[in-house]
Amino acid sequence: MSASISLVIPTLNAGREIGALIEALLGQSLVPEEIIVVDSSSDDSTVEIASSYSQVRVELIDRKEFDHGLTRDRALKNSAGDIVCFMTQDAFPVSERLVERLVAPILADPSVAISSGRQLPKADARRFEQLVRGFNYPPKSNVRDVSDVTNLGVKAYFASDVCAAYRRRAYLELGGFGRTDMSEDMLMAAKTLNAGWKVAYAADAEVYHSHNLTLRQQYERNRAIGRFLERNAELLSCPSEVGEGGRLARCVASTLLKEGDLSELLAFGADCAARLLGNRIGRMQARKGSK
To answer: 245, exposed or middle or buried, with CB in 10 Å at 0-12, 13-18, 19+?
Structure first.
Protein backbone atom coordinates (compact mmCIF):
# COMPACT_ATOMS: atom_id res chain seq x y z
CA MET A 1 0.00 0.00 0.00
CA SER A 2 1.24 3.49 -0.87
CA ALA A 3 -0.06 6.55 0.91
CA SER A 4 0.50 10.29 0.99
CA ILE A 5 1.88 11.66 4.26
CA SER A 6 1.39 14.98 6.03
CA LEU A 7 3.23 16.04 9.17
CA VAL A 8 2.01 18.62 11.70
CA ILE A 9 4.09 20.45 14.32
CA PRO A 10 2.34 22.76 16.84
CA THR A 11 4.77 25.47 17.98
CA LEU A 12 5.19 28.19 20.56
CA ASN A 13 8.50 30.07 20.76
CA ALA A 14 10.38 27.24 19.05
CA GLY A 15 12.98 29.45 17.41
CA ARG A 16 15.92 27.54 18.89
CA GLU A 17 14.58 24.17 17.73
CA ILE A 18 12.35 24.46 14.68
CA GLY A 19 15.03 24.96 12.03
CA ALA A 20 17.00 21.85 12.98
CA LEU A 21 13.79 19.81 13.24
CA ILE A 22 12.59 20.85 9.78
CA GLU A 23 16.03 20.12 8.30
CA ALA A 24 15.95 16.65 9.86
CA LEU A 25 12.46 15.99 8.47
CA LEU A 26 13.44 17.11 4.98
CA GLY A 27 16.37 14.70 5.16
CA GLN A 28 14.19 11.67 5.93
CA SER A 29 14.21 8.53 3.79
CA LEU A 30 10.46 9.12 3.46
CA VAL A 31 9.82 12.86 3.29
CA PRO A 32 6.24 13.98 4.04
CA GLU A 33 4.44 15.54 1.08
CA GLU A 34 3.58 18.48 3.32
CA ILE A 35 4.86 19.81 6.64
CA ILE A 36 2.47 22.09 8.52
CA VAL A 37 3.62 24.30 11.40
CA VAL A 38 0.73 25.56 13.53
CA ASP A 39 2.11 28.47 15.54
CA SER A 40 0.41 29.95 18.60
CA SER A 41 1.54 33.58 18.22
CA SER A 42 5.23 33.04 19.03
CA ASP A 43 7.23 35.99 20.33
CA ASP A 44 10.46 34.80 18.76
CA SER A 45 11.69 33.83 15.28
CA THR A 46 9.67 30.60 14.96
CA VAL A 47 7.40 31.81 12.16
CA GLU A 48 10.21 33.50 10.26
CA ILE A 49 12.38 30.37 10.34
CA ALA A 50 9.58 27.95 9.44
CA SER A 51 8.34 30.21 6.64
CA SER A 52 11.80 30.27 5.06
CA TYR A 53 11.30 26.65 3.91
CA SER A 54 9.26 26.34 0.74
CA GLN A 55 8.18 22.83 1.78
CA VAL A 56 6.58 24.14 4.99
CA ARG A 57 3.14 25.72 5.36
CA VAL A 58 2.71 27.91 8.43
CA GLU A 59 -0.71 28.41 10.00
CA LEU A 60 -1.13 31.06 12.70
CA ILE A 61 -3.55 30.96 15.61
CA ASP A 62 -4.06 33.18 18.63
CA ARG A 63 -2.29 31.76 21.66
CA LYS A 64 -5.54 31.81 23.64
CA GLU A 65 -7.18 29.62 21.00
CA PHE A 66 -4.73 26.74 21.40
CA ASP A 67 -6.25 23.46 22.53
CA HIS A 68 -4.34 20.18 22.42
CA GLY A 69 -7.22 18.40 20.76
CA LEU A 70 -8.96 21.03 18.62
CA THR A 71 -5.76 22.62 17.28
CA ARG A 72 -4.44 19.29 16.06
CA ASP A 73 -7.88 18.35 14.74
CA ARG A 74 -8.05 21.51 12.65
CA ALA A 75 -4.55 20.92 11.30
CA LEU A 76 -5.37 17.35 10.32
CA LYS A 77 -8.53 18.43 8.54
CA ASN A 78 -6.55 21.13 6.70
CA SER A 79 -3.98 18.59 5.58
CA ALA A 80 -4.10 16.28 2.58
CA GLY A 81 -2.30 13.13 3.67
CA ASP A 82 -3.78 9.65 3.86
CA ILE A 83 -1.61 9.39 6.95
CA VAL A 84 -1.11 12.42 9.20
CA CYS A 85 1.87 12.49 11.55
CA PHE A 86 2.25 14.72 14.59
CA MET A 87 5.44 15.81 16.33
CA THR A 88 6.20 18.31 19.05
CA GLN A 89 8.76 21.06 18.61
CA ASP A 90 11.07 19.62 21.27
CA ALA A 91 11.34 16.11 19.78
CA PHE A 92 14.15 15.29 17.36
CA PRO A 93 14.53 12.28 15.04
CA VAL A 94 17.23 9.80 16.04
CA SER A 95 17.70 8.70 12.43
CA GLU A 96 16.68 9.57 8.88
CA ARG A 97 14.24 6.63 8.90
CA LEU A 98 11.91 8.01 11.59
CA VAL A 99 8.94 8.79 9.33
CA GLU A 100 9.37 5.58 7.33
CA ARG A 101 9.35 3.47 10.48
CA LEU A 102 6.57 5.44 12.15
CA VAL A 103 4.06 4.89 9.35
CA ALA A 104 5.16 1.30 8.62
CA PRO A 105 2.60 -0.38 10.93
CA ILE A 106 -0.25 1.54 9.26
CA LEU A 107 0.98 0.66 5.79
CA ALA A 108 1.44 -3.00 6.74
CA ASP A 109 -1.92 -3.61 8.44
CA PRO A 110 -5.21 -2.02 7.28
CA SER A 111 -6.66 -2.44 10.79
CA VAL A 112 -4.00 -0.23 12.46
CA ALA A 113 -5.29 3.32 12.93
CA ILE A 114 -2.55 4.85 15.11
CA SER A 115 1.18 4.30 15.37
CA SER A 116 3.44 6.08 17.84
CA GLY A 117 7.19 6.04 18.30
CA ARG A 118 9.75 5.53 21.01
CA GLN A 119 11.11 8.42 23.08
CA LEU A 120 14.74 8.30 24.13
CA PRO A 121 16.14 10.65 26.79
CA LYS A 122 18.05 13.71 25.66
CA ALA A 123 21.71 14.09 26.57
CA ASP A 124 20.88 16.40 29.49
CA ALA A 125 18.30 14.07 31.08
CA ARG A 126 19.03 13.26 34.70
CA ARG A 127 19.56 9.62 35.56
CA PHE A 128 16.13 8.76 36.93
CA GLU A 129 14.48 10.44 33.93
CA GLN A 130 16.57 8.21 31.66
CA LEU A 131 15.28 5.15 33.51
CA VAL A 132 11.66 6.38 33.44
CA ARG A 133 11.89 6.83 29.65
CA GLY A 134 13.34 3.35 29.35
CA PHE A 135 10.45 1.86 31.31
CA ASN A 136 7.73 3.76 29.47
CA TYR A 137 9.26 3.33 26.01
CA PRO A 138 10.71 -0.20 25.75
CA PRO A 139 12.71 -1.48 22.75
CA LYS A 140 10.07 -3.99 21.62
CA SER A 141 7.30 -2.98 19.21
CA ASN A 142 3.69 -4.11 19.64
CA VAL A 143 0.24 -3.89 18.12
CA ARG A 144 -2.76 -3.78 20.48
CA ASP A 145 -6.49 -4.34 20.14
CA VAL A 146 -9.34 -4.03 22.63
CA SER A 147 -8.68 -7.51 24.03
CA ASP A 148 -5.40 -6.23 25.49
CA VAL A 149 -7.13 -3.81 27.86
CA THR A 150 -7.84 -6.56 30.39
CA ASN A 151 -4.16 -7.46 30.76
CA LEU A 152 -2.46 -4.14 30.04
CA GLY A 153 -4.90 -1.77 31.72
CA VAL A 154 -4.27 1.88 30.95
CA LYS A 155 -1.09 0.93 29.02
CA ALA A 156 -3.33 -0.47 26.27
CA TYR A 157 -4.36 3.11 25.52
CA PHE A 158 -0.78 4.28 25.13
CA ALA A 159 -0.07 6.75 22.33
CA SER A 160 1.93 9.96 22.24
CA ASP A 161 1.62 12.84 19.81
CA VAL A 162 5.23 13.71 20.56
CA CYS A 163 5.72 11.34 17.64
CA ALA A 164 2.63 9.67 16.17
CA ALA A 165 0.86 8.83 12.92
CA TYR A 166 -2.89 8.57 12.25
CA ARG A 167 -4.79 6.90 9.45
CA ARG A 168 -6.99 9.71 8.17
CA ARG A 169 -9.97 7.50 7.32
CA ALA A 170 -10.09 5.97 10.79
CA TYR A 171 -9.51 9.32 12.52
CA LEU A 172 -12.44 10.97 10.72
CA GLU A 173 -14.64 7.92 11.16
CA LEU A 174 -14.11 8.11 14.93
CA GLY A 175 -14.81 11.83 15.18
CA GLY A 176 -11.32 13.09 15.92
CA PHE A 177 -9.74 14.41 19.09
CA GLY A 178 -12.37 16.86 20.26
CA ARG A 179 -11.65 19.57 22.83
CA THR A 180 -9.17 18.58 25.53
CA ASP A 181 -6.44 20.42 27.40
CA MET A 182 -4.20 17.35 27.41
CA SER A 183 -3.80 13.69 26.41
CA GLU A 184 -5.74 13.94 23.16
CA ASP A 185 -3.60 11.04 21.95
CA MET A 186 -4.69 8.75 24.79
CA LEU A 187 -8.36 9.60 24.26
CA MET A 188 -8.03 8.85 20.55
CA ALA A 189 -6.29 5.55 21.26
CA ALA A 190 -9.13 4.55 23.59
CA LYS A 191 -11.76 5.44 20.99
CA THR A 192 -9.74 3.57 18.39
CA LEU A 193 -9.53 0.32 20.35
CA ASN A 194 -13.15 0.48 21.50
CA ALA A 195 -14.25 0.84 17.87
CA GLY A 196 -12.38 -2.27 16.77
CA TRP A 197 -9.27 -0.67 15.27
CA LYS A 198 -5.70 -1.39 16.41
CA VAL A 199 -2.99 0.81 17.91
CA ALA A 200 0.72 0.21 17.24
CA TYR A 201 3.91 1.11 19.08
CA ALA A 202 6.84 1.34 16.64
CA ALA A 203 9.90 1.01 18.86
CA ASP A 204 12.26 1.54 15.95
CA ALA A 205 10.73 4.97 15.20
CA GLU A 206 12.84 6.87 17.70
CA VAL A 207 13.01 10.50 18.79
CA TYR A 208 14.99 12.26 21.48
CA HIS A 209 12.52 13.76 23.96
CA SER A 210 12.66 14.24 27.73
CA HIS A 211 12.17 16.83 30.46
CA ASN A 212 13.85 17.49 33.81
CA LEU A 213 10.78 18.72 35.66
CA THR A 214 10.87 20.44 39.03
CA LEU A 215 8.77 18.95 41.82
CA ARG A 216 6.23 21.73 41.35
CA GLN A 217 6.04 21.08 37.62
CA GLN A 218 5.65 17.34 38.20
CA TYR A 219 2.89 17.94 40.75
CA GLU A 220 0.99 20.28 38.42
CA ARG A 221 1.39 17.93 35.45
CA ASN A 222 0.05 14.98 37.41
CA ARG A 223 -2.74 17.05 38.93
CA ALA A 224 -3.86 17.76 35.36
CA ILE A 225 -3.49 14.07 34.50
CA GLY A 226 -5.58 13.12 37.53
CA ARG A 227 -8.37 15.48 36.46
CA PHE A 228 -8.19 14.15 32.92
CA LEU A 229 -8.39 10.50 33.99
CA GLU A 230 -11.28 11.12 36.35
CA ARG A 231 -13.26 13.12 33.80
CA ASN A 232 -12.74 10.42 31.18
CA ALA A 233 -13.10 7.42 33.48
CA GLU A 234 -15.94 5.89 31.48
CA LEU A 235 -14.04 5.90 28.19
CA LEU A 236 -10.79 4.82 29.86
CA SER A 237 -12.47 2.08 31.87
CA CYS A 238 -9.66 -0.30 32.86
CA PRO A 239 -7.51 -1.31 35.85
CA SER A 240 -6.06 1.65 37.76
CA GLU A 241 -2.95 3.40 36.45
CA VAL A 242 -1.58 3.43 40.02
CA GLY A 243 -0.48 -0.20 39.67
CA GLU A 244 1.55 0.64 36.59
CA GLY A 245 3.05 3.59 38.43
CA GLY A 246 4.08 1.27 41.24
CA ARG A 247 5.84 -1.03 38.81
CA LEU A 248 7.68 1.92 37.31
CA ALA A 249 8.75 3.15 40.73
CA ARG A 250 10.05 -0.26 41.80
CA CYS A 251 11.94 -0.77 38.54
CA VAL A 252 13.65 2.63 38.59
CA ALA A 253 14.40 2.54 42.33
CA SER A 254 15.89 -0.96 42.04
CA THR A 255 18.25 0.17 39.28
CA LEU A 256 19.33 3.27 41.19
CA LEU A 257 20.03 1.12 44.27
CA LYS A 258 22.15 -1.27 42.22
CA GLU A 259 24.06 1.69 40.81
CA GLY A 260 24.53 3.13 44.30
CA ASP A 261 23.16 6.49 43.20
CA LEU A 262 21.53 7.57 46.46
CA SER A 263 21.12 11.21 45.49
CA GLU A 264 19.13 10.24 42.39
CA LEU A 265 17.17 7.69 44.43
CA LEU A 266 16.12 10.39 46.89
CA ALA A 267 15.29 12.76 44.05
CA PHE A 268 13.23 10.06 42.35
CA GLY A 269 11.38 9.36 45.59
CA ALA A 270 10.41 13.01 45.84
CA ASP A 271 9.41 12.99 42.16
CA CYS A 272 7.14 9.96 42.75
CA ALA A 273 5.55 11.66 45.74
CA ALA A 274 4.81 14.74 43.62
CA ARG A 275 3.28 12.52 40.92
CA LEU A 276 1.09 10.59 43.35
CA LEU A 277 -0.06 13.65 45.29
CA GLY A 278 -0.84 15.54 42.10
CA ASN A 279 -2.81 12.62 40.68
CA ARG A 280 -4.92 12.22 43.81
CA ILE A 281 -5.59 15.94 44.18
CA GLY A 282 -6.52 16.19 40.50
CA ARG A 283 -8.97 13.30 40.76
CA MET A 284 -10.52 14.79 43.87
CA GLN A 285 -10.90 18.16 42.17
CA ALA A 286 -12.52 16.54 39.14
CA ARG A 287 -15.04 14.72 41.34
CA LYS A 288 -15.88 18.00 43.02
CA GLY A 289 -16.08 19.81 39.69
CA SER A 290 -13.31 22.28 40.57
CA LYS A 291 -10.26 23.37 38.56
So the answer is: middle
Q: 28 — phi, psi (to 5°)?
A: -75, 155
Phi, psi dihedral angles at 233 (to 5 degrees): -60, -35
Rounded CA-CA distance 170/11 in Å is 26
User: Quick one: how many helices (H) and strands (E) in the chain?
Assistant: 11, 9
Block means of pLDDT (10 residues each) for the chain, 291 residues, are 92 98 98 98 97 97 96 97 98 98 98 98 98 97 95 91 98 95 94 97 98 97 93 74 80 97 97 96 89 57
Q: What's the sign of the alpha-carbon dihedral 64, 66, 68, 69?
A: positive
Burial (0-12, 13-18, 19+ Cβ within 10 Å), 262: exposed
Query: Structure pTM?
Result: 0.94
